[in-house]
Amino acid sequence: MKAYEILMDLSLIMISAKLMGLFARKIKAPMVVGEIIAGVIIGPCVLNILQPSEYLSIFSEIGVILIMFSAGLETNLQELKKSGLIACIIACVGVFVPLICGAALYTAFYGFDGFGSEKFFKALFIGCIMTATSVGITVEALKEMGVLKGRVGQTILSAAIIDDIIGIVVLTFVLSMKDPSSKMSVVTLKVVGFLAASFVLGFVIYKVFKYIDDKHPHTRRIPIIALSLCFILAYVAEEFFGIADITGAYIAGIILCNVRDAEYIDRKVNVNGYMFFAPIFFVCIGLKTSFKGMNSEIIIFSLAFVAVAMLSKLVGCGLISKCFKFRNIDCIKIGAGMMTRGEVALIITNKGLSMGVIPADYSTAVILLIIVSSIVTPVFLKFLYSKAPDTAPTAE
User: Fold this and answer.
1) How far is C-alpha 298 from the chain's CA centre?
2) Per residue in 34-47, pLDDT tens?
3) What DSSP line would sit under 118-142, residue for residue?
4) Are 223 and 268 in contact (CB under 8 A)?
5) Does the residue 202 lie in any domain?
6) Number of domains observed in the structure of the chain
7) Rounded CA gap, 368 and 353, in Å?
8) How far is Cα 97 from Cα 87, in angstroms, rounded to an integer?
9) Distances (CA, A) of 49 to 40, 249, 253, 395
10) Is residue 357 part of a domain?
11) Least-confidence region, from 33-37, 342-346, 367-371
12) How far is it, in rounded angstroms, from Cα 67 to Cα 44?
């Protein structure tokens, strides 16, 4: 392919992503849903105008790194500290229950060949996809109702943030275990080593960056240095620790989330991410979606996948909330608020597709889950709050 021919592909992706994104927002669905559907329409599934390619995969990878860096920058460490132990325990259960349920669902459909087998890793990966919570839709719904600052709203928000951190760590473990030469002890050592190195170096980097930011506030060099740090940590994570590059990008965002210009950095990064790289990532998910292998079994599995993914969050997070003296209906609110899936589920799915852990058929189940959970969750929360209002502020 000649260099200039790429330009037509990129323009097609940008236009189709924007049009379908606006359409999705019009019908109260997340814009990412529209962007994914744009990829399905222009890809091999429908019009077959555009095919997945190596250069699109590279752009897509940069897109997902920027998304995770931005997610790290937007993490509110003060809110995490405030909600503390309760949100952390809810998040842990909110990861563990879907992980087990997802693995059990795959095993029930396709059997089990023993630990370390191909089916074992596929089952684990299906569980991994179910662990992620997308808090964006929930936050918008709670904001509209004016209850985001209530005890329940703040618990959902904090638990969802911690949930994603734990989900990424779990993904790192599973992907590392996929390497035939890996042993559990080595994998654990790599993950612990990376997190320890990130903590120590992160403190030093934060202090240095804070000094630069204080001396040259709101200058272009700030987001440029921040973006360089993001790419360096993403590279180091994958190259030296065998950990997913997105984990390094996320850690980079968390390191810088408390500097004075964190919001400014995020805004500048989003110019590239939101306008260019992120749409390519979401459209590429659609391009990789395949209906060729679709049969009645895959369809039934997809429907079961959606039901189990939503119920496992509802039941897991809801039941554990009861231990912290929430009312029964508030426990259901917390479980319902954790049901939505979005970008992180797509990121995990994309990792599985690129590494050959799962076939493209299963991306259909994930897209279906995102669409259904994004529509059902706000409606369900509105119903629950109409039955039992909660506007009490979070306890200090």
Assistant:
1) 23
2) 888 899 899 988 89
3) HHHHHHHHHHHHHH---HHHHHHHH
4) yes
5) no
6) 1
7) 17
8) 15
9) 10, 32, 36, 55
10) yes
11) 342-346
12) 26
